Amino acid sequence: MEINKIHRVYFLGIGGIGMSALARYFATLGKEVSGYDRTSTELTTALVQEGIPVHFTEEVEAIPDNIDLVIYTPAIPVDHKEYQYFLSHSILMVKRSEVLGWLSQNLHCIAISGTHGKTSISCMTTHLLKQAAVPVNGFIGGISVNYHTNLILTENAHTVVVEADEYDRSFLRLQPDIAVVSAVDADHLDIYKTHDALKSAFAEFISKIRTGGTLIINAMVDMPVETDKKVVTYGGPQSDYRAENIRVEAGSFVFNLVGPGIKIEDIHMEVPGKHNVENALAASAAAHLAGLDADEIKQGLETYKGVKRRFEFICKTRESVYVDDYAHHPEEIKACIGAARALFPGRKITGIFQPHLFSRTRDFAAGFSEALSLLDEVVLLPIYPAREMPIPGVNSEMLMEQITCKEKACMEQSEVESWVNTSTIDVLITMGAGDIDKLVEKIKFVIEQKELAQKK
Question: Is 251 exposed, middle or buried, given 0-12, 13-18 or 19+ CB atoms closer than 10 A?
Fold first, then answer.
């Protein structure tokens, strides 16, 4: 793609976290950027405030004239009116993953993949490099708390960090110099059908590492790795990069990092959870291979503030703690609850969970029920459908039947504020990848108002 020949770019699904980063990127290049999304969100509002027009109905009439390039998400259905319009008018249409491939092909590419952890590792790796004054661009699948954006740009960047998404096999468009594989748990079975097919896609991704490149892989990943590239492991007790003496001090996770030719003692992380210690190992390995020394890595890790909706503290009052998290897979839910247990031992932990996708709920029903049973109290919201049609018999009630907590309930989103107001909240976590985040400010307000009333 010749960027200089492209003047007007249109995004179908502009409100997606990865799509919005690309929209911002093209806008910084001075291109005329606009787009469609199904619903208005905090992110689309931010784009509009940045000067990028967005509309929310399928209207061919709303499309600007003389579009040179259309970037679309695989979540857009093929019968979408605007999709069909561009198709019939022979306008160049490409998926987001293809664009990331173009933008990274002439840079030193660090691609972060995995069914869990890739957003946090991508954000952390970008931050480590930026803090060390490495000219880096970062395309992140979440909003960095440090930078308040999902797009990090540096003038004359020679390195790019990209989130390599396995959904729809998108990551196969990339040819990284350094590739991280954080986890290969079963997921996206609506696309892959079987866990083995998912593993095969990751194997193909690994095969695309450039000559002289390196694979950084979690030691817990259960799949054979056949590659002629250098392989570096992390996360296990005998791994190349490993954490030692992990402990919690004054509400922070602290550990020592040991790797080839490097040892860093007493790293204090602002982000909680053993899973984030593991994420820090992956990011540190990538940064170390990119040339950072021990002092630069420690400074970067200790100043890293996380990603919005990844164990994000919404409020802490005298009586209650409220955390919001993107967890939408059983393993992510376990990690989130584990972090809460480590930080708040002995306290009652309540979770409000919105399942994401009918197919995922069906495929991992037993895992969801098992993970949610780690809570003291569970509230389930209806399944967020996203791109899917309902599947008969698949609903939140089917999960509830197998959850072993004594305190459990299903309710509508509209009932949550009232329930929070009448409940005794100790530690509350909202979890899910749908639109549960729309409840966050409302829940925060209720908790804070209850606290004020108790002080009177």
Answer: exposed
**Which residue is it, tokens 């790797």?**
259
pLDDT of amino acid 133: 97
Q: What is this structure's pTM?
A: 0.88
Q: How many CB atoms lie within 10 A of CB 440?
A: 17
Joined tokens for residue 397: 């009630």
pLDDT score recorded for residue 1: 66
Using the predicted structure, report yes or no on whether residue 324 has a pLDDT greater than 90: yes
| pLDDT at residue 82, as a whole number | 96
- Cα–chain center distance at 61: 34
The domains of the chain, with CATH numbers, are 7-91 (3.40.50.720), 98-302 (3.40.1190.10), 312-455 (3.90.190.20)
- Round to whole Å and give the CA distance between 91 and 405: 54
β 159-164/178-181 pair status: unpaired
Distance of alpha carbon 8 from alpha carbon 448, whole angstroms:
46
Has residue 251 got a pLDDT over 70? yes
Q: Does residue 186 carry a pLDDT above 80?
A: no
Which pLDDT score is estimated for 37?
95
* Residues 258-272 as b or e (16 or more Cβ within 10 Å = b): bbeeeebeebebbbb
Counting every residue written for the chain, the total comes to 456
> pLDDT > 70: what percent of the chain?
100
